[in-house]
Amino acid sequence: xRNSKATRVARVVLGVLAVAGLVMVDPGVAHAAKVGNxxxxxxxxxxxxxLRFKTNAFxxxxxxxxxxxxxxxxxxxxxxxxxxxxxxxxxxxxxxDDSETxxxxxxxxxxxxxxxxxxxxxxxxxxxxGVSFPxxxxxxxxxxxxxxxxxxxxxxxxxxxxTDFTGFVNPLTGAVSLRMQxxxxxxxxPLDADCQINPIDINALVSGTTSPPGPNTPIxxxxxxxxxxxxxxxxxxxxxxxxxxxxxxxxxxxxxELNNNLGLPSAAGNNExxxxxxxxPKRPTAAIVAGITATPATGSAPLTVDFSAGPSTSVRPVAxxxxxxxxxxxxxxxxxxxxxxxxxxxxxxxxxxxxxDQGDFDEExxxxxxxxxxxPVGTVVVNxxxxxxxxxxxxxxxxxxxxxxxxxxxxxxDTVAVDGCTTGSAGTCTIGDVPVGVYWLAETxxxxxxxxxxxxxxxxxxxDTDTIDIANTPVPGTVVIxxxxxxxxVVVADVLFTTVIDAVPVGGARGAEDVAVAASCTTxxxxxxxxxxxxxxxxxxxxVVETVPEGHRPVEPVAITVGLGDVPxxxxxxxxxxxxRRGGSKPR
Length: 588
Known about the structure:
Mean pLDDT: 90
Largest sheet: 13 strands, antiparallel
Structural class: mainly beta
Number of helices: 2
Helix content: under 10%
Strand content: over 45%
Low-confidence stretches: 1-30
Distance between the termini: 96 Å
């Protein structure tokens, strides 16, 4: 953030002395480099402002201005007509015509100075050949003032420079001054060809504060910033019109007619000039530009910031780099690079002053924001596995604060949830930014077919990453036998069924290797059926084998696979239906 040019204090002060139409520079600073891009190609455009002779003002606004014939104001003399704008006003040829007083078309144009030069020490010159003012128009009510001897007429007022316009600009301090020596030629109606107001010496328009004679009071301009400045003067005098001729053997003096209309002559203290000027297309740059990098510019207390004046530039050799880390008016360090530790939270302004070998300087500031250090935090990483040690997705975990009494096992008081996560396809999930403390990691969303794991005690320290491995156990399966038969006297009760592990090779038909018994049950009659249930059967392939009752035909072993249940905390349930007939041989 650059200091406002308006508030800067320059150690080198320009002395301006008006002599013979020139702005002279104090010899003590004549060679001081103020401007970083001296040379030619400078121009000035007056974007806004006015020139006032007593109460008669000439409007020089250009930027954003509408032409007189479309601005909604009767800009002509009220004695000329009461019509407003095109097409009502007869003097307006179109909406872009810039005069409601003069006939014909007058374009809207700015005051501009071209082909200017600016020296390294800030002295600027705009040649008279490059100075142009738009004409101004005055309606003279001569008929009334001359008693009908002379008709009313319109005067074209042409402003011309008497000499080159000279001045000074200091981009370091924002100071601007400009001396304008003018004449105004008046043409129109019965006026003689040499009619003029000459000379008008506005010496000098300044961006500072004026000290005029009364009745005027001091006014203040605006220093040079980003190519613009407002320069003011209210101490100049304006002579009366001269060489304008007369009519009817001197009965009507046109000098008097014009002077009465313009309020001339006008002594110093009654007149005023204010001009908002913009350098274009080339703008004077400062011969010294301070630049700061601060790394880091934000952070938590205590914050150590490394400062560098590396971005700074200077036309002349740099004599010093001075640092004020808290902008309290006192310099704390020097050098191109330095560092400072901000111990306490707050918003600080660090200031750099770069001074060249002639004492000119520029300043730059940088905002440093120091915050309160966040509380230390840790991270919990959950690795979740299921059947066969495979990653288990879809398991949800929540961290609950371990309230007093801590330790032991999770109690009814441990209900404040801090954060949680759900395992992805890799069976992992992460809970970050966990404040330092003790917790219970509880499985709150259980995948189908599994039982919830027991809560795990977790202790988090600042910067810790705790990895918790949790293996879920599938809920064992259940085999339900439904025994029925056909024919008379079929036995459905007291029939033994056995679940035998299907050992490798799995499938096909029951082999000699398939002998390990996982579970068994004996049916009891339930109506025309016989039923029994085998529980706690681990996941895997099996054969369900019936011990066939005497006198019944054998039944082939039934192949089943016990898998995961469809809902949490519940195992797979397989129903095997066996139908017997009487007669035949026993099965194997």
